[in-house]
Predict the structure.
Amino acid sequence: MRQFISPSILSADFNNLGREIQIINNSQADFIHLDVMDGIFVPNISFGFPVIEHVNKIATKPLDLHLMIIEPVRYVVHLAEAGAYIITVHYEACKDLHRTIRHIKKQGVKASVCLNPNTPVNVLNDIITELDMVLLMSVNPGVGGQVFIESTYAKVRELKIMIDKYNPACLIEVDGGVNYETGRKLFEAGANILASGSFIFKSENPAETISKLKSFCINSCQ
Ligand code: DX5
Ligand code: ZN
């Protein structure tokens, strides 16, 4: 199984962002998850290019960008230049999803689509073969620290069946309310990447929390 941890810096201490990134650099984390919000697709506004560029300068882990913005295709080139490794766009926020995904891949960046909790997996039927990753929201997007939506496990299993059939290389990431219990069950259900914010950064020892989340990997993690 390919299983990874992607700490979301939305819950990090922004007064000490450099130090927080160093903690991730020195941990067993596999990615750094960056949540970009526009105040339109989601009510909240988070951060944009200056922060992403700053993080990219000091991060040793690949940047996993989660765009909660409408028509993200407008920013793909700039985000690729800012250091994105994976760009995730929301199905609900794109007028032309195929064009958006192809535009991301054209920049040499991995392309991923995110589904809100109430968007069914079958909307991906016509695009799954083109994706490097699917991100399933296990809370409504926009803020950290929410309670995990239990129906996500079934959704992961359903998506895994689709992926095994049509695009086995495609990864499944889950985002929102990830902790030791939900994380273990998500890996068991077939998730490959866990994005986790408050559970990691509000813990006493974030690096240790990352190691423990990672220890729930099934077999050996690659
Ligand atoms: C929420 C963001 C998440 C957030 C997760 O809209 O996409 O990445 O940081 O936060 P937790 O892990 O606290 O639910
Ligand atoms: Zn996110």
Summary: Residues 44 and 143 are 7 Å apart (CA to CA). Residues 8, 10-11, 33, 35, 66, 139, 141-142, 144-146, 175-178, 195-199 surround D-xylitol-5-phosphate (ligand 1) (CB under 6 Å). The chain has a mean pLDDT of 96. Residues 152-166 form the longest helix (15 residues).
